[in-house]
Task: inverse folding
């Protein structure tokens, strides 16, 4: 049984509420050591240790923070083959082209970009008003940040190595990480690398801590604790909003990335002239990672055109020819089955795939559903719910007015895509539809499928509620993502020797 | 009976739930026309009209927005004598030195600073990544913003003329303003000036709307409506947090400015050498506006020094010599009486003033309470609760350790002040105490009393929970305050003709 990593020590839980082991979703076989589900005394110990470290961490120099992150990145880079192997076994995601070749390097790169932001203080937003003797910039929350990673990115969004983690550390907040229970061995290995990097630094031992797992009620208690400054969470709407409601009671900020259906609108000109190349691009984009991305394009709006019916057939054929998608877990499989039954009950028809998972392990046929725009618009609240995994809902729209109605009826989305023909015939509708779609989505794409989230300072990975809970912040992209875990700190008439050097 | 201002028309409420009139707090006399308490049908009408205006307003040019704000500012400036006269009658705040000479010009200036920010797009935070073809900046929430002003600033924080209002308009969000029921005639006059400015512009009629008053349950329903993008609120914790909880259900962002006790720490060197000048400065600062400021210094921590007892006597004498404070309303008087009874039950002793309001109208004696640090620390949750109005709680601290314990036990505060002696003997403690106080306060002051909130881009008017609900944003200071009412909008691979011109 592995312990939690609290105040620099690996400790058996003070209160053990249960235990679990990893599952290989390719075979459904349980494997490896047991991990503990801890209790409120462990939460208390981690929060106390973090609180005791706040003051020292707040005084850490840019170099101390950046060196730690760079060192951690180098250790991850050196151990990527081993990490990718463990993560593959726990998630079913392939090493290549994914964990070893894409997600691992992305994780390393993200930590290095955070280190660079720590060095150049670019997240500080300093404003100095000499005339009034006032200066302000961003500082630590002065409290712990709880980083809770999702099932689908064991490295790049892990609570102990992802953007939330790196952002909180640059802002000088002690991190308490929570592993997603889908990949505890990957998380443990990352924590050991973080531990080595932390020991090589002179940052406080409680700068990073790890509690593997909690029961839901203890999670809510931790969220509501006034010693907590913020929560960074990527996962389901239900869990996330419950955490936020608890966090609001204690005053912690919540940054939740909750997914969405990421609508794609194919416009008539593109459908007529360019239907096959669109179909290939769509299948290539939608089928990445078994469709298990927050930004997976799950809703495709087709125009009424001679080619639309053949396009649907083309997509259905392509989906039928794909081997069943490897899912991350049994939970994804049962979520999909429920979602399909809910979509069909609301009027969607099955064009490819099935309503049931298959084996070995946890797999699911690539599934395509379709519905008319009238039916969609009559039940859009149900039909726009995310079905996480290898599923696409096609909506047949007859008119530009219907497409506009679909756009205006959308809940907040991480992304939205317009696909235009190259002959200019779609330009007028694209401009008009884009105006309605724009405030509904964090990122608007054109002739490009969304799953990719570039590590760019111009990226926005977030969006209006309920895709996230604060559309003013991005979960990805330095230095912007760092500002989530900061507070404005203003100095009014304070003597030069008592204000941070850059503000003097 | 005055109507609401909905979609450009003054309309009697669709559902009238009650009515009320203004009260002159100097005499307790009711005066003037009746104003309606409206119902949910009126909320629905305002939200529908705002939603219909979103698209046009989002396309408004910088000049359209700035010209409207400048025109509105000029109209307020021209009508300041009349506005100050109405506001004085409704709030008891003096015209000079306050409504006419300070708050009025501040209101005009703030609108002009917002207009300047609209012209220069300084709130947009544009980031362009040419290599990846991605650009992002800040845009409108694409939904209505509800601006709810407090009782204590009828002009500068009014829901229809304050920083929340100006910020939301610059960000292209239609505003639904709610008057504080303490000054409906002032608000009506402001709305008429806004109406004239709006008619002179070509902005949509529903760019600004006014619903005078709602029952609490209808207010919560409005907060939870998914057509609402954000709430800007200044007022009590209880009302604000109830609104936030409702807003979270529908996804609206909440920016609440909820007040605090704004602790002032007098350090031993200053107490020994400079006690009288501190006392004069403190009385001058604390007694402004009847102590009815969010940033009023309500908690004074004195050191153990030979002079501390005489300082307390000096303060008590000064408070006794002040004429009773004119309160804004009966509600402030009863809140004070309750607060004093709660503070005394927790161990505080009355040194000056009384536990009862007095007349004519709503007045209250300047009240000074004191408590030992041990007693304070034993019941700090109760003793640090804000008592809005002419009241100061003095804490006698024996050691630097006690002062540090007081600082670390504070809830989030808008401001915190250190008062140092000029001989350098307080410097070491100031540095250490400042490190603990820093993360607890939005603005740290030194040898300066807090009530003033300069209109500076470096100002931070906000702070950690529960003084506000997001310590990363300031309610005052352009362009920062504008960003509260925006979302990040990212363009990925979007054709140049379909992205905003500055991002091309």
Result:
């Amino acid at each position: 049984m592995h312990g939690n990593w609290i105040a620099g020590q690996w400790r058996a839980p003070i209160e053990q509420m249960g235990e679990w082991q990893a599952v290989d979703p390719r075979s459904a076989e349980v494997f490896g050591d047991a991990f503990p589900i801890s209790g409120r005394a462990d939460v208390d110990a981690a929060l106390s240790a973090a609180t005791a470290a706040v003051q020292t961490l707040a005084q850490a120099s840019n170099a101390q923070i950046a060196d730690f992150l760079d060192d951690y990145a180098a250790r991850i880079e050196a151990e990527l083959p081993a990490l990718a192997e463990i993560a593959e076994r726990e998630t079913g995601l392939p090493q290549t082209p994914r964990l070893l070749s894409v997600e691992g390097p992305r994780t390393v790169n993200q930590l290095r970009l955070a280190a660079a932001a720590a060095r150049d203080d670019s997240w500080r937003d300093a404003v100095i008003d000499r005339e009034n003797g006032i200066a302000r910039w961003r500082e630590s929350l002065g409290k712990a940040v709880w980083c809770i990673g999702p099932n689908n990115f064991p490295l790049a969004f892990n609570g102990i190595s992802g953007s939330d983690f790196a952002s909180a550390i640059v802002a000088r907040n002690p991190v308490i990480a929570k592993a997603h229970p889908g990949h505890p061995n990957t998380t443990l290995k990352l924590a050991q690398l973080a531990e080595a990097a932390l020991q090589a630094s002179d940052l406080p031992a409680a700068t990073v801590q790890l509690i593997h797992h909690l029961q839901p009620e203890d999670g809510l208690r931790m969220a509501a604790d006034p010693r907590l400054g913020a929560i960074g969470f990527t996962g389901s709407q239900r869990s996330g909003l419950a955490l936020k409601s608890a966090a609001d009671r204690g005053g912690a900020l919540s940054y939740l990335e909750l997914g969405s259906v990421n609508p794609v609108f194919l416009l008539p000109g593109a459908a007529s002239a360019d239907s096959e190349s669109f179909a290939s691009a769509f299948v290539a984009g939608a089928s990445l990672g078994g469709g298990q991305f927050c930004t997976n394009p799950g809703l495709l709006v087709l125009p009424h055109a001679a080619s639309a019916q053949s396009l649907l057939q083309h997509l259905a054929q392509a989906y039928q020819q794909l081997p069943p998608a490897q899912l991350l877990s049994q939970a994804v499989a049962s979520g999909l089955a429920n979602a399909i039954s809910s979509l069909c009950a609301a009027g969607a028809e099955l064009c490819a795939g099935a309503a049931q998972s298959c084996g070995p392990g946890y797999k699911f046929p690539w599934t395509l559903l379709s519905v008319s725009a009238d039916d969609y618009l009559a039940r859009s609240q149900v039909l726009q719910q995310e079905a996480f995994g290898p599923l696409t809902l096609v909506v047949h729209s007859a008119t530009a007015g219907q497409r506009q109605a679909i756009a205006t009826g959308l809940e907040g989305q991480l992304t939205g895509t317009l696909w235009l023909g190259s002959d200019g015939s779609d330009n007028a509708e694209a401009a008009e539809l884009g105006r309605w779609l724009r405030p509904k989505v964090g990122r608007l794409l054109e002739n490009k499928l969304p799953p990719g989230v570039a590590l760019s300072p111009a990226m926005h990975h977030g969006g209006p509620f309920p895709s996230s809970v604060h559309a003013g912040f991005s979960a990805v992209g330095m230095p912007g993502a760092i500002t989530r875990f900061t507070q404005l700190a203003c100095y009014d008439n304070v003597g030069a020797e008592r204000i941070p050097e850059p503000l003097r």
In short: Residues 4-20+35-258+468-503 of chain A form a domain with the Aldehyde Dehydrogenase; Chain A, domain 1 fold (CATH 3.40.605.10). The CA atoms of residues 264 and 417 of chain A lie 5 Å apart.
